[in-house]
Amino acid sequence: MENSIIIINAADIPPALQIARNLSSYTVYTFDPILVDPISASGLRNIVYTPFDNCPLYHELDASAHSAAFDLERTLDLEVRDIVPEVSIEGWQHLNLYYIFITLKWYTALWENFGNQLAGTKVHLFICDTPGSYYFNSFIPSILLLWNLKSNDIEFSGFTYGSKDDDGHLIPELPEGNQNEELEQLLIHLPTCWYDINYFFQEMISTGKTLINIEAKNFNIPLPAIKTLALTELESTLANLPEEIRTKINNFSRKLAEKLDRILQPHLVIPNYRQRQTQQISNTYCAQLVTYYQLSRYFKNSKPSRIVLSDHDAGFHGPIISFAQKHSLPVILLPHSKCVNDIEFKYRNITVLSHPIHGQEIFDAN
Q: Strand order in 350-352's β-sheet?
């Protein structure tokens, strides 16, 4: 029986090399033209690049993934409205959910298009052992292929490798007392602003206000010489919250996990992997809610005069903007780079700045 090795991501290449050493013959299939040269350079042989000619059109895939993320957010928001009526979680994970849905939709279509070509072969596929988060490598593409092969009685072997630490449980370390409450403060959170950070930083320093920076879980930009709120474990902070809030958060997390599991069931059929993906999303929502409560405690007696964010949501934008909305605080949204990004929050007191090189209008700046 012919051996088929499937490479979806560059991280699949090292485990593929290990498997290939023990096979007398094999064919390597890949679907990303960017991967052809690295696969060839690795020493793997018999490489077949398979273009996805019937792929979803990008603008349709993009719109569909946004729509699915909006629908999920509205459903979850209604589900937990009676538990946490003080906030709306719509938008809190929009970028993350968008990437998860675009991955689900793309690879479901790919395997439906390509899967039958593997009939009569033994398929070797590699599973990155981590749930989907943003556009990082995850088990979603491989698990979708695995289920396609299983459903079509195609023989396969799955090999897991590596894992990315789950950062869903990390939150800003916000102590109960704010030592700067007598001073005018700017709250800053600027993930991914690699290009313009020196300019932004100098402008903020020149205001003479006290700058409080929230570290990002992903795409963090270090800002020296100012107070930075580092990240800490959710569990230790949760244990120190008032019992009423802890109960709310635990009920919130349980309700979300139950609803997410039902919604994701048609997409991720294998229970173990679906539950892991559900838990990752639910943990992140839980951490965001704790962040919201911690912001309220930290700034109890003295609110920041302005909040400065980038337009790349690395996980804390939702609770920060909800906090701003509750207290009618002005927000400035800075461009993280010279390309368009998607920020999906509805709050009227946001000033959105953009690079002219973007090349398209902002239709709803708020």
A: 227-229, 210-214, 185-189, 306-310, 331-334, 350-352
Q: Give Cα separations from 246 to 77, 231, 291, 353 (angstroms).
A: 19, 20, 13, 37
- Which helix (H) or strand (E) segment is 308 a member of? strand 306-310
The alpha carbon dihedral of 234, 236, 242, 244 has a sign of: positive
Q: pLDDT tens, 31-73?
A: 999 999 999 999 999 999 999 988 999 999 999 999 999 999 9
* Contact in structure between 228 and 213 (CB atoms under 8 Å): yes
| Local structure of residue 171 (DSSP, 8 states) | E
Q: What sign does the dihedral 38-163-148-104 (CA atoms) show?
A: negative
- Closest by Cα among 54, 55, 4 to 30: 4
Q: 168 and 130 in contact (C-beta within 8 Å)?
A: no
- Copy the structure tokens of residue 40: 């060839």
CA distances to 178, 214, 284, 334 from 189, in Å: 17, 5, 18, 10
pLDDT band of 118, cuts 50, 70, 90: very high
